[in-house]
Design a protein that fits this description.
CATH topology of one domain: Aspartate Aminotransferase, domain 2
Family: Belongs to the group II decarboxylase family.
CATH class of one domain: Alpha Beta
CATH superfamily of one domain: Type I PLP-dependent aspartate aminotransferase-like (Major domain)
Oligomer: single chain
Number of strands: 11
GO molecular function, one term: transaminase activity
Keywords: Aminotransferase, Decarboxylase, Lyase, Pyridoxal phosphate, Transferase
Bound molecules: pyridoxal-5'-phosphate
Distance between the termini: 58 Å
Cofactor: pyridoxal 5'-phosphate
Helix content: 40-55%
Pfam families: Pyridoxal_deC (PF00282)
Amino acid sequence: MIALASEEARLYLQQVPDRPVRHQADRERLLSVLGGSLATSGAAPEQIVRQLADTAHWGNVACNSPRYFGFVIGGAYPVSLAADWLVSTWDQNAGIYAISPMVSVIEEVAAGWLLDLFGLPNDAGVGFVTGCQMANFTCLAAARHGVLRRIGVDVETEGLAGSPRIHVVTSAESHVTIDIALRYLGFGTRHVHRVAADAQGRMQPDALAAMLETLSGPIIVCAQAGNVNTGSFDPLAEIAALTNAKGAWLHVDGAFGLWAQANPELRHLSRGIELADSWSTDAHKWLNVPYDCGVAIVRHANDHRAAMMSTAAYLVQTAGKERDPTDWGPEFSRRARSVPVYATLASLGRSGVAALIERSCARARQFAGVLAESPGVDILNDVVLNQVLVRFDQDDARTRAVIAAVQQEGTCWLGGTVWHGLAAMRISVSNWATSEADVARSAEAILRCHRMLSASQSG
Ligand SMILES: *Cc1c(COP(=O)(O)O)cnc(C)c1O
Protein backbone atom coordinates (compact mmCIF):
# COMPACT_ATOMS: atom_id res chain seq x y z
CA MET A 1 0.00 0.00 0.00
CA ILE A 2 2.79 2.43 0.93
CA ALA A 3 4.61 1.46 -2.27
CA LEU A 4 1.46 2.09 -4.30
CA ALA A 5 0.96 5.52 -2.71
CA SER A 6 4.60 6.36 -3.25
CA GLU A 7 4.46 5.38 -6.94
CA GLU A 8 1.26 7.39 -7.43
CA ALA A 9 2.77 10.39 -5.64
CA ARG A 10 5.86 10.22 -7.86
CA LEU A 11 3.66 10.21 -10.95
CA TYR A 12 1.60 13.15 -9.68
CA LEU A 13 4.63 15.28 -8.94
CA GLN A 14 6.14 14.39 -12.29
CA GLN A 15 3.04 15.63 -14.12
CA VAL A 16 2.41 18.82 -12.13
CA PRO A 17 4.83 21.10 -14.01
CA ASP A 18 3.35 20.21 -17.42
CA ARG A 19 -0.38 19.97 -16.77
CA PRO A 20 -2.80 22.90 -16.98
CA VAL A 21 -2.62 24.76 -13.68
CA ARG A 22 -6.34 25.57 -13.54
CA HIS A 23 -9.14 23.33 -12.32
CA GLN A 24 -10.41 20.92 -14.94
CA ALA A 25 -13.48 19.52 -13.25
CA ASP A 26 -16.62 20.90 -11.68
CA ARG A 27 -18.44 19.68 -8.60
CA GLU A 28 -20.82 17.46 -10.56
CA ARG A 29 -18.03 15.60 -12.33
CA LEU A 30 -16.12 15.17 -9.07
CA LEU A 31 -19.26 13.95 -7.31
CA SER A 32 -20.00 11.50 -10.10
CA VAL A 33 -16.64 9.84 -9.44
CA LEU A 34 -16.30 10.30 -5.67
CA GLY A 35 -19.91 10.46 -4.44
CA GLY A 36 -22.77 8.06 -3.93
CA SER A 37 -24.02 6.58 -0.69
CA LEU A 38 -21.67 4.78 1.66
CA ALA A 39 -21.45 1.13 0.61
CA THR A 40 -22.52 -1.55 3.04
CA SER A 41 -19.33 -3.47 2.58
CA GLY A 42 -16.15 -1.62 1.80
CA ALA A 43 -13.88 -1.75 -1.22
CA ALA A 44 -10.28 -2.94 -1.38
CA PRO A 45 -7.82 -0.39 0.01
CA GLU A 46 -5.69 -0.54 -3.17
CA GLN A 47 -8.71 0.31 -5.26
CA ILE A 48 -9.47 3.36 -3.14
CA VAL A 49 -5.91 4.65 -3.19
CA ARG A 50 -5.82 4.19 -6.99
CA GLN A 51 -9.11 5.99 -7.44
CA LEU A 52 -7.96 8.95 -5.31
CA ALA A 53 -4.69 9.13 -7.19
CA ASP A 54 -6.34 8.90 -10.63
CA THR A 55 -8.92 11.54 -9.79
CA ALA A 56 -6.30 13.97 -8.47
CA HIS A 57 -4.71 14.33 -11.91
CA TRP A 58 -7.77 16.20 -13.17
CA GLY A 59 -9.66 16.90 -9.94
CA ASN A 60 -6.98 19.00 -8.26
CA VAL A 61 -5.94 22.49 -9.17
CA ALA A 62 -2.13 22.25 -9.55
CA CYS A 63 -1.45 24.75 -6.78
CA ASN A 64 2.02 23.29 -6.20
CA SER A 65 2.87 24.08 -9.82
CA PRO A 66 5.83 26.44 -10.29
CA ARG A 67 3.40 28.59 -12.31
CA TYR A 68 0.72 28.95 -9.63
CA PHE A 69 0.69 32.58 -8.50
CA GLY A 70 -2.71 32.78 -6.78
CA PHE A 71 -3.24 33.96 -3.19
CA VAL A 72 0.05 33.42 -1.32
CA ILE A 73 0.68 29.71 -1.83
CA GLY A 74 3.98 27.91 -1.55
CA GLY A 75 4.82 24.50 -2.96
CA ALA A 76 6.62 21.79 -1.04
CA TYR A 77 10.32 21.00 -1.19
CA PRO A 78 10.94 17.28 -1.75
CA VAL A 79 12.62 17.09 1.65
CA SER A 80 9.65 18.73 3.38
CA LEU A 81 7.20 16.42 1.64
CA ALA A 82 9.29 13.38 2.59
CA ALA A 83 9.45 14.55 6.20
CA ASP A 84 5.69 15.05 6.15
CA TRP A 85 5.19 11.45 5.01
CA LEU A 86 7.27 10.30 7.95
CA VAL A 87 5.10 12.40 10.25
CA SER A 88 2.01 10.51 9.02
CA THR A 89 3.88 7.22 9.25
CA TRP A 90 4.93 7.77 12.84
CA ASP A 91 1.41 9.00 13.75
CA GLN A 92 2.74 10.79 16.81
CA ASN A 93 0.48 12.91 18.96
CA ALA A 94 2.67 15.98 19.32
CA GLY A 95 0.73 17.33 22.28
CA ILE A 96 3.05 16.44 25.14
CA TYR A 97 6.62 15.30 25.65
CA ALA A 98 5.56 12.08 27.35
CA ILE A 99 3.83 10.86 24.17
CA SER A 100 6.44 12.01 21.70
CA PRO A 101 9.87 12.94 23.04
CA MET A 102 11.52 13.05 19.61
CA VAL A 103 8.90 15.41 18.16
CA SER A 104 9.12 17.62 21.23
CA VAL A 105 12.87 17.95 20.80
CA ILE A 106 12.55 18.55 17.03
CA GLU A 107 10.09 21.36 17.81
CA GLU A 108 12.42 22.84 20.36
CA VAL A 109 15.26 22.87 17.83
CA ALA A 110 13.13 24.14 14.91
CA ALA A 111 11.73 26.90 17.14
CA GLY A 112 15.24 28.01 18.03
CA TRP A 113 16.30 28.03 14.38
CA LEU A 114 13.30 30.16 13.41
CA LEU A 115 13.98 32.71 16.18
CA ASP A 116 17.57 32.88 14.99
CA LEU A 117 16.60 33.34 11.31
CA PHE A 118 14.05 36.02 12.20
CA GLY A 119 16.40 37.87 14.56
CA LEU A 120 13.92 37.55 17.44
CA PRO A 121 14.69 37.01 21.17
CA ASN A 122 15.92 33.46 21.77
CA ASP A 123 13.75 33.06 24.86
CA ALA A 124 10.48 33.92 23.08
CA GLY A 125 7.62 31.41 23.17
CA VAL A 126 7.03 29.53 19.91
CA GLY A 127 3.94 27.53 18.95
CA PHE A 128 3.42 25.49 15.79
CA VAL A 129 -0.17 25.99 14.66
CA THR A 130 -2.20 25.27 11.51
CA GLY A 131 -1.53 28.59 9.80
CA CYS A 132 -1.18 32.30 10.28
CA GLN A 133 -4.87 32.58 11.17
CA MET A 134 -4.29 30.50 14.29
CA ALA A 135 -0.92 32.17 14.84
CA ASN A 136 -2.72 35.53 14.96
CA PHE A 137 -5.25 34.00 17.34
CA THR A 138 -2.54 32.58 19.61
CA CYS A 139 -0.50 35.78 19.67
CA LEU A 140 -3.55 37.94 20.37
CA ALA A 141 -4.66 35.56 23.13
CA ALA A 142 -1.20 36.06 24.67
CA ALA A 143 -1.59 39.81 24.18
CA ARG A 144 -4.99 39.77 25.87
CA HIS A 145 -3.45 37.92 28.80
CA GLY A 146 -0.37 40.13 28.91
CA VAL A 147 -1.99 43.57 28.89
CA LEU A 148 -4.45 42.56 31.61
CA ARG A 149 -1.82 40.79 33.75
CA ARG A 150 0.09 44.04 33.86
CA ILE A 151 -2.86 45.68 35.62
CA GLY A 152 -3.44 42.71 37.92
CA VAL A 153 -6.30 41.00 36.11
CA ASP A 154 -6.26 37.32 35.08
CA VAL A 155 -8.33 37.16 31.92
CA GLU A 156 -8.18 33.36 31.87
CA THR A 157 -10.46 33.27 34.90
CA GLU A 158 -12.28 36.61 34.51
CA GLY A 159 -12.89 36.45 30.78
CA LEU A 160 -13.56 39.72 28.98
CA ALA A 161 -16.86 39.98 30.87
CA GLY A 162 -15.00 40.46 34.15
CA SER A 163 -12.12 42.57 32.84
CA PRO A 164 -11.51 46.24 32.09
CA ARG A 165 -11.86 47.19 28.44
CA ILE A 166 -8.90 46.50 26.17
CA HIS A 167 -8.55 48.86 23.21
CA VAL A 168 -7.59 47.04 20.02
CA VAL A 169 -6.01 49.06 17.22
CA THR A 170 -5.45 47.68 13.72
CA SER A 171 -4.62 49.11 10.33
CA ALA A 172 -7.26 49.79 7.69
CA GLU A 173 -5.21 47.27 5.69
CA SER A 174 -4.97 44.47 8.28
CA HIS A 175 -5.48 40.96 6.94
CA VAL A 176 -8.97 39.58 7.43
CA THR A 177 -7.62 36.88 9.79
CA ILE A 178 -6.82 39.58 12.37
CA ASP A 179 -10.53 40.42 12.50
CA ILE A 180 -11.43 36.73 12.70
CA ALA A 181 -8.96 36.20 15.56
CA LEU A 182 -10.46 39.20 17.36
CA ARG A 183 -13.90 37.65 16.97
CA TYR A 184 -12.71 34.29 18.35
CA LEU A 185 -11.19 36.12 21.31
CA GLY A 186 -14.37 37.94 22.23
CA PHE A 187 -13.33 41.42 21.10
CA GLY A 188 -15.77 41.54 18.19
CA THR A 189 -15.01 43.88 15.32
CA ARG A 190 -17.22 46.93 15.90
CA HIS A 191 -15.05 48.42 18.64
CA VAL A 192 -11.74 47.95 16.87
CA HIS A 193 -9.94 51.22 16.13
CA ARG A 194 -8.74 51.39 12.50
CA VAL A 195 -5.72 53.45 11.55
CA ALA A 196 -5.44 54.87 8.03
CA ALA A 197 -2.94 53.38 5.57
CA ASP A 198 -1.08 54.97 2.66
CA ALA A 199 -1.16 54.20 -1.06
CA GLN A 200 0.98 51.08 -0.60
CA GLY A 201 -1.16 49.85 2.31
CA ARG A 202 1.25 50.88 5.09
CA MET A 203 -0.17 52.01 8.41
CA GLN A 204 0.44 55.74 8.83
CA PRO A 205 2.39 56.40 12.04
CA ASP A 206 1.00 59.94 12.40
CA ALA A 207 -2.51 58.57 12.34
CA LEU A 208 -1.51 55.90 14.87
CA ALA A 209 0.03 58.53 17.16
CA ALA A 210 -3.16 60.61 17.01
CA MET A 211 -5.25 57.52 17.70
CA LEU A 212 -3.13 56.44 20.70
CA GLU A 213 -3.47 59.91 22.23
CA THR A 214 -7.21 59.36 22.55
CA LEU A 215 -6.88 55.98 24.27
CA SER A 216 -6.09 54.95 27.83
CA GLY A 217 -5.92 51.63 29.66
CA PRO A 218 -4.73 48.33 28.16
CA ILE A 219 -4.02 48.60 24.41
CA ILE A 220 -3.13 46.05 21.72
CA VAL A 221 -1.87 47.32 18.35
CA CYS A 222 -1.79 45.02 15.31
CA ALA A 223 0.70 45.93 12.59
CA GLN A 224 1.70 44.07 9.48
CA ALA A 225 4.81 42.89 7.66
CA GLY A 226 3.82 42.00 4.11
CA ASN A 227 0.49 43.32 2.84
CA VAL A 228 -1.40 40.49 1.14
CA ASN A 229 -1.90 42.62 -2.00
CA THR A 230 1.17 44.83 -2.30
CA GLY A 231 3.73 43.07 -0.06
CA SER A 232 4.36 46.40 1.69
CA PHE A 233 5.56 46.68 5.30
CA ASP A 234 4.15 48.96 7.97
CA PRO A 235 6.87 51.33 9.27
CA LEU A 236 7.55 49.04 12.20
CA ALA A 237 10.36 50.98 13.91
CA GLU A 238 8.20 54.09 14.13
CA ILE A 239 5.17 52.10 15.20
CA ALA A 240 7.15 50.25 17.89
CA ALA A 241 8.46 53.56 19.27
CA LEU A 242 4.85 54.77 19.65
CA THR A 243 3.49 51.57 21.18
CA ASN A 244 6.42 51.23 23.58
CA ALA A 245 5.98 54.83 24.77
CA LYS A 246 2.30 54.09 25.38
CA GLY A 247 2.92 50.74 27.07
CA ALA A 248 0.80 49.02 24.41
CA TRP A 249 1.31 45.46 23.15
CA LEU A 250 2.50 45.39 19.53
CA HIS A 251 1.60 42.38 17.43
CA VAL A 252 2.95 41.96 13.90
CA ASP A 253 1.20 39.79 11.32
CA GLY A 254 4.11 38.57 9.19
CA ALA A 255 2.49 35.63 7.40
CA PHE A 256 5.06 35.90 4.63
CA GLY A 257 6.71 39.25 5.39
CA LEU A 258 8.51 37.99 8.50
CA TRP A 259 10.67 35.93 6.12
CA ALA A 260 12.30 39.16 4.91
CA GLN A 261 14.22 38.91 8.19
CA ALA A 262 15.86 35.72 6.92
CA ASN A 263 17.68 37.67 4.21
CA PRO A 264 20.10 40.39 5.38
CA GLU A 265 19.53 42.32 2.13
CA LEU A 266 15.80 42.56 2.82
CA ARG A 267 15.91 43.36 6.53
CA HIS A 268 15.60 47.07 5.80
CA LEU A 269 11.94 46.37 4.92
CA SER A 270 11.14 44.93 8.35
CA ARG A 271 13.40 47.26 10.34
CA GLY A 272 12.20 47.50 13.94
CA ILE A 273 10.17 44.28 13.78
CA GLU A 274 12.24 42.81 16.63
CA LEU A 275 10.82 45.50 18.95
CA ALA A 276 7.31 44.01 18.84
CA ASP A 277 5.73 41.81 21.53
CA SER A 278 4.42 39.05 19.25
CA TRP A 279 4.77 37.86 15.68
CA SER A 280 2.78 35.45 13.55
CA THR A 281 3.96 33.75 10.38
CA ASP A 282 3.43 30.84 8.05
CA ALA A 283 5.74 28.01 7.09
CA HIS A 284 3.34 26.60 4.46
CA LYS A 285 3.61 29.77 2.41
CA TRP A 286 7.19 30.87 1.88
CA LEU A 287 9.16 28.10 3.54
CA ASN A 288 7.42 25.67 1.19
CA VAL A 289 6.44 22.95 3.64
CA PRO A 290 3.19 21.07 2.93
CA TYR A 291 -0.05 22.29 4.50
CA ASP A 292 -0.53 22.99 7.23
CA CYS A 293 1.93 24.94 9.33
CA GLY A 294 1.95 28.39 10.90
CA VAL A 295 4.07 29.75 13.74
CA ALA A 296 3.08 31.94 16.71
CA ILE A 297 5.94 33.74 18.46
CA VAL A 298 5.59 35.73 21.69
CA ARG A 299 8.35 37.75 23.37
CA HIS A 300 6.80 37.22 26.80
CA ALA A 301 6.84 33.42 26.98
CA ASN A 302 4.95 33.41 30.28
CA ASP A 303 2.01 35.30 28.78
CA HIS A 304 2.03 32.96 25.79
CA ARG A 305 2.00 29.88 27.98
CA ALA A 306 -0.57 31.25 30.42
CA ALA A 307 -2.98 31.92 27.54
CA MET A 308 -2.63 28.44 26.01
CA MET A 309 -1.65 26.02 28.76
CA SER A 310 -3.95 23.37 30.10
CA THR A 311 -3.64 21.12 33.10
CA ALA A 312 -5.52 17.94 33.91
CA ALA A 313 -4.87 15.22 36.43
CA TYR A 314 -4.28 12.49 33.85
CA LEU A 315 -1.74 14.41 31.80
CA VAL A 316 1.94 13.70 32.28
CA GLN A 317 3.41 17.16 32.14
CA THR A 318 7.03 18.01 32.21
CA ALA A 319 8.58 19.88 35.07
CA GLY A 320 12.04 20.11 33.59
CA LYS A 321 13.39 21.61 30.39
CA GLU A 322 11.32 19.31 28.19
CA ARG A 323 8.79 21.03 25.99
CA ASP A 324 5.08 20.17 26.02
CA PRO A 325 3.97 21.51 22.62
CA THR A 326 0.35 21.88 23.74
CA ASP A 327 1.40 24.73 26.07
CA TRP A 328 2.13 26.95 23.07
CA GLY A 329 -0.93 26.59 20.88
CA PRO A 330 -4.71 26.18 21.00
CA GLU A 331 -4.75 22.51 20.05
CA PHE A 332 -4.55 19.62 22.49
CA SER A 333 -3.76 16.61 20.32
CA ARG A 334 -2.09 17.41 17.07
CA ARG A 335 0.11 16.52 14.15
CA ALA A 336 3.90 16.82 14.38
CA ARG A 337 3.88 19.66 11.88
CA SER A 338 7.20 21.05 13.05
CA VAL A 339 9.06 18.09 11.55
CA PRO A 340 8.87 19.30 7.91
CA VAL A 341 9.98 22.74 9.14
CA TYR A 342 12.99 21.16 10.83
CA ALA A 343 13.86 19.08 7.76
CA THR A 344 13.49 22.02 5.36
CA LEU A 345 15.59 24.38 7.47
CA ALA A 346 18.24 21.71 7.98
CA SER A 347 18.36 21.07 4.24
CA LEU A 348 18.46 24.71 3.14
CA GLY A 349 20.68 26.12 5.85
CA ARG A 350 20.80 29.83 6.56
CA SER A 351 22.01 30.75 3.08
CA GLY A 352 19.48 28.48 1.38
CA VAL A 353 16.58 30.19 3.15
CA ALA A 354 17.98 33.64 2.29
CA ALA A 355 18.33 32.55 -1.35
CA LEU A 356 14.78 31.19 -1.50
CA ILE A 357 13.37 34.52 -0.31
CA GLU A 358 15.49 36.63 -2.65
CA ARG A 359 14.76 34.35 -5.60
CA SER A 360 10.98 34.81 -5.23
CA CYS A 361 11.45 38.59 -5.00
CA ALA A 362 13.64 38.57 -8.11
CA ARG A 363 10.97 36.62 -10.02
CA ALA A 364 8.33 39.13 -8.90
CA ARG A 365 10.54 41.96 -10.22
CA GLN A 366 10.98 40.00 -13.44
CA PHE A 367 7.17 39.76 -13.81
CA ALA A 368 6.74 43.48 -13.16
CA GLY A 369 9.54 44.40 -15.55
CA VAL A 370 8.26 42.32 -18.47
CA LEU A 371 4.59 43.26 -18.00
CA ALA A 372 5.24 46.99 -17.54
CA GLU A 373 6.96 47.17 -20.93
CA SER A 374 3.79 46.20 -22.72
CA PRO A 375 1.41 49.00 -23.79
CA GLY A 376 -1.71 49.35 -21.65
CA VAL A 377 -0.23 47.47 -18.69
CA ASP A 378 0.33 49.22 -15.36
CA ILE A 379 1.96 47.90 -12.20
CA LEU A 380 0.03 49.39 -9.28
CA ASN A 381 2.41 48.66 -6.40
CA ASP A 382 6.06 49.17 -5.53
CA VAL A 383 7.36 45.63 -5.98
CA VAL A 384 9.35 45.45 -2.74
CA LEU A 385 8.73 41.76 -2.04
CA ASN A 386 7.07 38.88 -3.88
CA GLN A 387 3.72 40.51 -4.74
CA VAL A 388 2.76 42.28 -7.98
CA LEU A 389 -0.51 44.11 -8.77
CA VAL A 390 -1.29 44.54 -12.46
CA ARG A 391 -3.97 46.56 -14.21
CA PHE A 392 -4.90 46.51 -17.88
CA ASP A 393 -5.98 49.47 -20.03
CA GLN A 394 -6.84 51.37 -16.84
CA ASP A 395 -10.13 49.55 -16.88
CA ASP A 396 -11.84 47.29 -14.32
CA ALA A 397 -13.76 45.16 -16.82
CA ARG A 398 -10.72 44.66 -19.06
CA THR A 399 -8.57 43.73 -16.07
CA ARG A 400 -11.10 41.17 -14.90
CA ALA A 401 -11.42 39.79 -18.42
CA VAL A 402 -7.66 39.31 -18.69
CA ILE A 403 -7.60 37.50 -15.33
CA ALA A 404 -10.42 35.19 -16.45
CA ALA A 405 -8.72 34.52 -19.79
CA VAL A 406 -5.40 33.69 -18.12
CA GLN A 407 -7.10 31.35 -15.67
CA GLN A 408 -8.86 29.59 -18.52
CA GLU A 409 -5.76 29.39 -20.72
CA GLY A 410 -4.00 27.23 -18.14
CA THR A 411 -0.30 28.17 -18.51
CA CYS A 412 -0.40 29.70 -15.06
CA TRP A 413 -2.97 30.63 -12.45
CA LEU A 414 -3.44 33.90 -10.61
CA GLY A 415 -6.34 35.74 -9.06
CA GLY A 416 -7.76 39.20 -8.83
CA THR A 417 -8.30 41.78 -6.16
CA VAL A 418 -9.58 45.31 -5.70
CA TRP A 419 -6.81 47.71 -4.71
CA HIS A 420 -8.00 51.10 -3.47
CA GLY A 421 -11.07 50.92 -5.65
CA LEU A 422 -9.33 49.55 -8.76
CA ALA A 423 -9.63 46.01 -10.09
CA ALA A 424 -6.20 44.41 -10.30
CA MET A 425 -4.53 41.12 -11.15
CA ARG A 426 -2.63 39.72 -8.19
CA ILE A 427 0.63 37.83 -8.69
CA SER A 428 2.35 36.16 -5.75
CA VAL A 429 5.63 34.32 -6.27
CA SER A 430 6.03 31.94 -3.35
CA ASN A 431 6.98 28.55 -4.81
CA TRP A 432 10.59 27.39 -4.42
CA ALA A 433 10.53 25.81 -7.90
CA THR A 434 9.43 28.85 -9.92
CA SER A 435 12.17 29.49 -12.49
CA GLU A 436 12.95 32.47 -14.69
CA ALA A 437 11.60 30.42 -17.58
CA ASP A 438 8.31 29.83 -15.70
CA VAL A 439 7.90 33.58 -15.20
CA ALA A 440 8.80 34.36 -18.83
CA ARG A 441 6.30 31.78 -20.07
CA SER A 442 3.59 33.02 -17.71
CA ALA A 443 4.15 36.68 -18.54
CA GLU A 444 3.90 35.78 -22.21
CA ALA A 445 0.59 34.02 -21.59
CA ILE A 446 -0.74 37.04 -19.68
CA LEU A 447 0.25 39.44 -22.45
CA ARG A 448 -1.16 37.11 -25.11
CA CYS A 449 -4.54 37.15 -23.33
CA HIS A 450 -4.38 40.93 -23.02
CA ARG A 451 -3.60 41.40 -26.74
CA MET A 452 -6.35 38.99 -27.71
CA LEU A 453 -8.93 40.89 -25.68
CA SER A 454 -7.72 44.28 -26.94
CA ALA A 455 -7.88 43.07 -30.53
CA SER A 456 -11.38 41.61 -30.19
CA GLN A 457 -12.54 44.88 -28.65
CA SER A 458 -11.15 47.19 -31.35
CA GLY A 459 -11.91 44.75 -34.22
C1 LIG B 1 -2.15 34.21 4.41
C2 LIG B 1 -2.19 35.28 5.42
C3 LIG B 1 -2.79 35.08 6.67
C4 LIG B 1 -3.54 33.81 7.00
O1 LIG B 1 -2.69 32.71 6.95
P1 LIG B 1 -3.25 31.21 6.87
O2 LIG B 1 -2.00 30.42 6.80
O3 LIG B 1 -4.05 31.14 5.61
O4 LIG B 1 -4.05 30.95 8.07
C5 LIG B 1 -2.70 36.09 7.59
N1 LIG B 1 -2.09 37.25 7.32
C6 LIG B 1 -1.52 37.50 6.12
C7 LIG B 1 -0.85 38.81 5.88
C8 LIG B 1 -1.55 36.52 5.13
O5 LIG B 1 -0.98 36.74 3.94
